[in-house]
Design brief:
With 191 residues, this protein is mainly alpha-helical. It is 61% helix and 6% strand. It is built from nine helices and three strands, in the order βααββααααααα. The radius of gyration is 20 Å and the shape is elongated.
Length: 191
């Protein structure tokens, strides 16, 4: 993943108000390399930044020096939604490749940790379900791509897209789990 700093955004023509209104929270935030003396580091996913820059809302807000008012807030929210969806579509999903025995071991341990009925059954269909569950859990870091979306249809749409992409990546990496991924994608398996 490639990130842009606040300074990098300013050099691209962004104002602080545009960053706040169109991008929202940074994708990564941490301490400055100068320690407590420096400002906190705020980084934004380049794919998300570029998606917002292509949106007409970026030009409107840029001409006005930032967005203001409820109409502008809607424009900014729509810009964030589009940017997040574009980032979700562009981001490659990297599934950890494990030998079958190791995936089974980790899936069983994961199932025991989360508990629930049937945690120790070990039937073949349960094992497949737990393996998909373990792999989905191991890919939760991609949930950070949803940052900046708050409630409403935009968040739900982005969550569905991310879920579909993660399940498709698991099915591609582990063809023997494809049927279970399809079952989960159709809504007959939760998370």
């Amino acid at each position: 993943m490639t990130f842009v700093s606040l300074e990098g955004l300013r050099s691209r023509g962004w104002t602080d108000r545009m960053v706040r209104d169109l991008l929202g929270w940074p994708d990564v935030q941490g301490r400055s390399l100068r320690g407590a003396a420096g400002p906190p580091v705020r980084l934004y996913l380049l794919a998300r930044v570029e998606a917002v820059e292509r949106a007409p809302e970026f030009r409107v807000c840029g001409a006005a020096g930032g967005c203001a008012g409820s109409a502008a807030a809607r424009v900014a929210a729509e810009g964030r939604r589009r940017a997040v969806l574009a980032a979700l579509r562009a981001e490659p999903i990297r599934v950890p490749m494990l030998p079958p025995a190791e995936l089974e071991r980790r899936a069983l341990r994961y199932r025991r940790e989360v508990g629930g009925a049937g945690a120790d059954d070990g039937a073949a269909e349960d094992l497949v379900r737990w393996q998909v569950g373990y792999l989905r859990q191991s890919l939760r870091s991609y949930d950070a791509l949803l940052d900046g979306l708050f409630g409403g249809a935009g968040r739900a749409e982005a969550e569905r897209l991310l879920r579909q992409r993660v399940l498709a990546a698991i099915a591609q990496a582990y063809p023997r789990l494809a049927e279970e991924c399809l079952r989960v994608a159709r809504g007959r398996g939760g998370r």
